[in-house]
Please model this.
Amino acid sequence: MEPKEPVRLVLCDDHCIVTDGLKRLLQDVPWVECVGTANSGQEAIFLLEHVPADMVIMDLTMPGMDGAETMGRIKLRWPEIKVIILTMNDEIGVIRRLMDQGADGYLLKSCGRDELLRAVQGLHAGRKHFSSEITEALLVKRTETAASDARLSGLSVREREVLSALAEGLSNKEIGERLFISPRTVDTHRTNLMKKVGVHNLAGLVRLAVSAGLVS
Model:
């Protein structure tokens, strides 16, 4: 349902062609009003200090103050302002971090005009909006994590510590020094780990540890 009052947008991207393109894309939408554009996080903050706005559509990767830091400052000073991250970055870890930090929407720059408008409508109505590609990727990642967690459920605390250290790239000697055990004991744990989780090499252990979130 279209908002009764115009949604006041601020557009922020360090490439003018992007903000100019978004303005043209939205100029014929009667319930959207672009109240300003900014080419950096600093400019966006300055603009919000002087112009009332309901929502910011913002790039993630910008020189100086990036999108994540800018969003954090906006949320601290103007918690009522909604923020949509519009970026090419589809890394699940980055998306989750920004969701945790309060992003109201996350769209890839490959999205179309219709999805952008749906996101603006949804945020204005109090809902969050994440692009279909991102939602699907998050669901797949959640499934992989659940499967990995199930495979790790039978491991002891010590075995989890060894697995995490192996995934960090530490040698048997370095792991032994960290955990105050002998390199031979580390090797025994490593062999037992492979048997318990059903993998046959170190690369398989690393993939499992990353999927389960033991390492980033």
